């Protein structure tokens, strides 16, 4: 890593701050006029030329000013960026949104996606990993009244899914306990990929024989446990991409939109959050996929208790407000972990 003088660091930070706001190449006179750097525009210009030669800045056109390179953004994030926090109002808004009750995990994740895109003005991504490898622990069925049942399915990683089922006939607590007991006996200790349609047919036959066959309940259990092996990706604020000057080029925009439709790529990008603690930052050419080499991805894990369940992220141009986005992703991930852990306690 090159050792930059304090003056070069100051100028690099000024160029990045200016470019993030205005999305236009930055000249030495702009830096001299708007930032408290007590040297002449000519000296600033020479320092900017040095930073370009070192790879921290680039000059898109001969007569234009400079713009940050991916190397410049990386140095800024690792060494120059001041930590930021969401405003008190934003934090209160997010926490209040997560306090809404009686929602399934899918509804919570959908809301999280909307919140993250709203707070950052970029595109949000949320990964709910495949649960095929998790081990079934138990199902709980609790009567809310004579026809409405709260159904909770729990695996070895914790809470998986919950919903309120309305039945076409009245059902007692004893009948619910009988159904839960049979399902738990037949499925306990199996991974979800080991639970197939044939096993459910046997369970259905036994329930029919015991006159405890409640179609709505069985349909819900099957819907959750007989899942496909695809991971669940949710996007929020995709239209925010259209607001970014970098993607006014239709060719670039089309390539990016194609990537956003490929769950396998998005899953791979989000899965990398599992290899690092805290917030993971991938800038421009650090991304493996050509279509997003002009983007940065900020991701973080979310948990139920001590179990890593999935990850959330924000995708935007490399010309990103890194401090603000990092703060938002971290805060939302922690709030999401708290509400999921509370639901599972």
Give structural attributes.
345 residues; alpha+beta; Arc Repressor Mutant, subunit A; Beta-Lactamase; Enolase-like, domain 1; 3 domains; five-stranded antiparallel β-sheet; three-stranded antiparallel β-sheet; 12 helices; 10 strands; 46% helix; elongated
How would you describe what is shown here?
The chain has 345 residues and is an alpha+beta fold. It folds into three domains: 6-80, Orthogonal Bundle (Arc Repressor Mutant, subunit A), CATH 1.10.10; 88-129 and 231-344, Beta-Lactamase, CATH 3.30.450.40; 136-225, Enolase-like, domain 1. 46% of the residues lie in helices and 19% in strands. It is built from twelve helices and ten strands. It has helices at residues 6-22, 28-34, 41-53, 70-80, 88-98, 105-120, 173-187, 197-209, 215-225, 250-260, 263-271, 322-344, and strands at 57-58, 67-68, 123-128, 136-143, 148-155, 158-166, 232-236, 279-283, 295-304, 307-317. The strands form three sheets. A five-stranded antiparallel sheet has the order 7-3-10-9-8, with helices on both faces. A three-stranded antiparallel sheet has the order 4-5-6, with helices on both faces. Strand 1 (57-58) and strand 2 form a beta hairpin. Helix 2 packs across helix 3 (41-53). The longest helix is centred in the last third of the chain and has 23 residues, at 322-344. It is elongated.
